[in-house]
Write a structure and sequence with these properties.
The chain is of the alpha/beta class. The chain is built from 9 helices and 10 strands. Helix 1 (about 45-65) runs parallel beside helix 2 and helix 3 packs across helix 9. Bound molecules: 5'-O-[(R)-(carboxyoxy)(hydroxy)phosphoryl]adenosine and zinc ion.
């Protein structure tokens, strides 16, 4: 029996989760609304908000799990990548608690945890599987041969898919984070109304910066002819942009599956909460005879359940960290 506390603090969510032998008992998230008025995450404000939230969030996660602090076997925390001040809060908290409880700590890579969120619910993908991880900072196709044998076989050369959503939202005058709002407006729009270009990048890599520029020029031209262009066509613009981002992502995923022969295919990360992507992913899976896997909605965007589950797999292999470990803003797997 292993009871693992997971702590996530890499960006603007303070989160804690308790898992028992791979089963999530509690999953608590405090989101930081403060960043919306600045149009993006302000690192210093994020660190301060983590300081305020971390004790109540961990307390609530313990309480809801039905376990007590003394029953914990290890504490897993996000060690990289992320905002350094934000990571430090979670890391220092995890270390302090581990010293007082005399239990080990487990350092977790945030992007690995996004991928392994697919191992939380049943049915689980079999190894090897492919995972399209799409978040605010990353866009990767990962070949996952075991929980610890992960290889990035394709990634973005510039913006991440989440950034493409958020920057489009900014151009449209929508608040941060814009991804969920584009998703919402797209639901009632015509995705075929406007055509945006698909970048021609070789291999399994992505690029979103050209798309962002073409959206900017398209909107500027639209406003020249009608100052209310955005208001009048918001749903169709959102649906058309979303459809293009989704097709860029899925075309590469199909290519990756054909090249590797792997048919167990997952998505993960904040953008995998997008309804358009989820639906198109299922359709693409049916057309290509894939076994498709999508984490539950609450395990797509940043959360600590994915940290706890990754911690659990590391616990099974005694992959503990020394107390001297420090967080890093950037890190390979
Ligand atoms: O994984 P995540 O929560 O944090 C990072 O590790 O970056 O991803 C955040 C990103 C943001 O860019 C946000 O706009 C996007 O995920 N996102 C969405 C949706 N929900 C979150 N993008 C499109 N549609 C959504 N429903
Ligand atoms: Zn994330």
């Amino acid at each position: 029996m292993a009871v693992i506390l997971g702590i996530e603090s890499s960006c603007d969510e303070t989160a804690a989760s308790v898992c028992l032998d791979g089963k999530i008992l509690s999953n608590v998230i405090a989101s930081q609304g403060i960043h919306a008025k600045y149009g993006g995450v302000v690192p210093e404000l994020a660190s301060r908000a983590h300081m305020q939230h971390i004790i109540p969030v961990v307390n609530e996660a313990i309480e809801r799990s039905g376990k007590s602090l003394n029953e914990l076997d290890a504490i897993a925390f996000t060690q990289a990548p992320g905002l350094i001040g934000a990571l430090l809060v979670g890391a220092q908290f995890a270390k302090s608690l581990s010293v007082s409880l005399q239990i080990p700590i487990i350092a977790v890579h945030h992007m690995q945890a996004h991928v392994l969120a697919n191992l939380i619910n049943d049915p689980k993908p079999g190894f090897p599987f492919l995972c399209l991880t799409v978040s605010g900072g990353h866009t990767q196709i990962v070949c996952c041969r075991s929980p610890f044998d992960l290889e990035v076989i394709g990634e973005t050369r510039d913006d991440a898919a989440g950034e493409a959503f958020d920057k489009t939202a900014k151009i449209l005058g929508l608040p941060y984070p814009g991804g969920p709002l584009i998703d919402k407006y797209a639901a009632s729009g015509d995705s075929k109304r406007y055509k945006f270009p698909e970048p021609q990048i070789e291999g399994l890599d992505f690029s979103f910066s050209g798309l962002k520029t073409s959206i900017l020029y398209f909107i500027q031209d639209g406003i020249k002819t009608d100052p209310e262009f955005i208001e009048k066509n918001l749903a169709d613009i959102c649906a058309s942009v979303q459809a293009r981002i989704v097709s860029i992502l899925l075309n590469k995923l199909v290519k990756a599956s054909k090249e590797t022969g792997i048919k167990d295919v997952c998505i993960a990360g904040g953008v995998s909460a997008n309804k358009g992507l989820r639906a198109a992913f299922e359709q693409t899976g049916n057309a290509n005879n894939w076994n498709t896997f999508i984490p539950s909605f609450e395990y797509c965007t940043d959360n600590a359940a994915m940290i706890a589950i990754t911690g659990y797999y590391k616990f099974l292999e005694n992959k503990f960290s020394d107390i001297s470990i420090t967080p890093t803003a950037r890190a390979a797997w």
